[in-house]
Each structure stands twice: as structure tokens, then as C-alpha cells.
Design goal:
Blueprint lengths: L1 H6 L11 H7 L4 E11 L2 E8 L7 E9 L6 E10 L12 H4 L20 E3 L8 H5 L25 E3 L1 H12 L8 H4 L11 E3 L8 E4 L10 E3 L59
Antiparallel strand pairs: 1-2, 2-3, 3-4, 5-6, 7-8, 8-9
Length: 285
């Protein structure tokens, strides 16, 4: 029976017991009684419709209580709660998760965190960064990757460089952009960037697949492009002689009728100029 008392509204707490509490908060915004909910022994929450247009779908929740062996009902609390059809703000997202590429503007600062997995310490060894650059290469394609001597390492004061994970993420992101191989511009190119004289390979691991375009007339000038990218401004592109230019067609016999102020095309009489109509006409006149 004690459990039943906690889930059943007390008969001595009437359905309009919370109306006074809600009316004291916003008398003009309190609507009809929507229902009750038993919160505990002799504690009931009443719900009233909210008439405030700014809070459509919200409900006034007024909790009333009665002390043991007392007939006086008191208002415990009154608050405005969202209903099932209430308009709510979207879930809060941390600033770091809301940030998108290109959001950093002039004067903005976006330092990388100390545990950023895209970066590692410059002195990290064991198959990453420095050791990876100077270790012997068995693949002939990798012999020219990275700095050739320690003097080519970053300037003093640079304490972190991109990790292997950071380089892989960057390579995938660059490769899927318009500067990669899967674009109409690249498909129509006579050759890939790797054979172009204006292609400047990057150093390090990314230099095995990416470089900068140095052709002022290319659409990707000054941008990082993949080695298998391409465009029509390739340094070794040759115009084929077989592609003949189409001869423009000029219709010298056709004409268009144009109406002028005061002259109607429908009312104009056109006379034929053939010799059948004018047999004595002089061709030279």
C-alpha cells in the first residue's frame, strides 16, 4: 500500500491545486489544466497549457504538496517545461567540434592541442618523422623523398611536425579535392603533373605524391596538386595538327524582317526581283 501511495495522486490535492502557483508566475500565460503526475506521497505536479506565443508547446509544471495530517496545500515549485511539440534549441556542440575548415579568419587563433594526434615531437624516432626521412630506402621511388641532409630540416624553434597519421589524413583530403586526379579537368589533360616542368614536388613523405603548381597560366597555380593531376597548361603539351578549325558558315541569302517605328512588316508589300517578273531589267543596274 505504501508503494501505491507514491504513484497515485492524493485525493486531498485537487486537480486545480497548482493553478494559483502558475497564475502568480504569469497569469496571462496560463491555460487549461492538462493533467497531473504523482511525484511522491502527498506530492503532485499539475500541468497547465502555456499561452505565451513565444513558448508554443510548453507547459507550466506546478508541484504542490500537503504535509502529513494537514489539510493545507502549499506550492512547492513552479516552472516552465517543454512539451512533446515544443520548439527546442539544438543540442549544444563544443566549439572545437563545431569548427569547420575555412572558419579561421583574420586575427583568429587556433592553436593545436598538446595531444593532437596529427602532430608529434620533432625528435620522435622509431619509424616516424626524422628517422623515416634519413633511413635507407629500398624502393627506388622513395630515394628522393624527404630532406637529403639535416640542414634541410625545419628551422630551429619548431618543436612539432606532422605525424604519420597526420600525413595520411592530409594526403587523403588533398587527393579527394579538385586538385586530385578525379576531375574533368584532369581527365581532359594531355598528361599528368608529374611529367610537367612546372610541377614542384614537396619534401618529406607527402612529396611522393604531391607538389605545387608553378605555371602562372594554369588554373592550379600556387596550389598543391597530386602527381597524377593534370590540365591543359602542361609544359609538354603539343597542339595536334590533325584538328582542323571549322570554317564558319555565312548565310548570304537569308534575311530577317525587323519592324521599324511607323513601318509594319505585315502591311509591307515585297516585290520579287527575278527576271521572270522583270525581263527587261538590266543586271548591271
Amino acid at each position: 500500500m505504501a508503494r501505491e501511495a507514491l504513484t497515485t495522486p492524493d485525493d486531498s490535492v485537487p486537480g486545480n491545486g497548482g493553478l494559483g502557483g502558475a497564475a502568480r508566475e504569469r497569469p496571462e500565460a496560463v491555460g487549461e489544466h492538462l493533467g497531473t503526475e504523482a511525484v511522491g506521497d502527498r506530492v503532485v505536479t499539475h500541468f497547465f497549457a502555456c499561452l505565451d506565443r513565444a513558448y508554443t508547446g510548453w507547459q507550466w509544471a506546478v508541484t504542490v504538496a500537503r504535509a502529513p495530517r494537514s489539510k493545507v496545500i502549499t506550492v512547492d515549485e513552479c516552472e516552465l517545461l517543454p512539451g512533446s511539440e515544443a520548439l527546442l534549441a539544438p543540442a549544444w556542440v563544443p566549439w572545437h567540434d563545431r569548427l569547420r575548415p575555412g572558419d579561421v579568419g583574420i586575427g583568429d587563433l587556433l592553436p593545436a592541442s598538446a595531444d593532437d594526434e596529427r602532430l608529434v615531437s620533432l625528435i620522435t624516432l622509431d619509424g616516424d618523422v626524422v628517422a623515416d626521412w634519413f633511413s635507407p630506402h629500398t624502393d627506388s621511388e622513395d630515394q628522393d623523398a624527404g630532406p637529403a641532409e639535416p640542414s634541410e630540416l625545419p628551422a630551429p624553434g619548431r618543436v612539432r611536425v606532422m605525424s604519420a597519421l597526420g600525413r595520411d589524413d592530409t594526403a587523403e583530403r588533398w587527393y579527394e579535392t579538385d586538385h586530385g586526379p578525379r576531375t574533368p579537368l584532369s581527365h581532359a589533360a594531355p598528361a599528368n603533373c608529374v611529367s610537367c616542368g612546372f610541377f614542384v614536388p614537396l619534401s618529406g613523405g607527402l612529396g611522393r605524391l604531391f607538389g605545387a603548381c608553378g605555371n602562372a597560366y594554369a588554373p592550379d597555380d600556387g596550389r598543391v596538386v597530386s602527381a597524377d593531376h593534370g590540365c591543359g597548361a602542361h609544359s609538354e603539351a603539343v597542339r595536334t595538327s590533325g584538328a582542323a578549325r571549322a570554317t564558319p558558315v555565312i548565310d548570304e541569302f537569308g534575311y530577317d524582317l525587323v519592324e521599324l517605328p511607323g513601318v509594319s512588316v505585315d502591311e509591307t508589300v515585297f516585290e520579287p526581283l527575278s527576271r521572270e517578273v522583270y525581263p527587261d531589267a538590266d543586271p548591271a543596274s
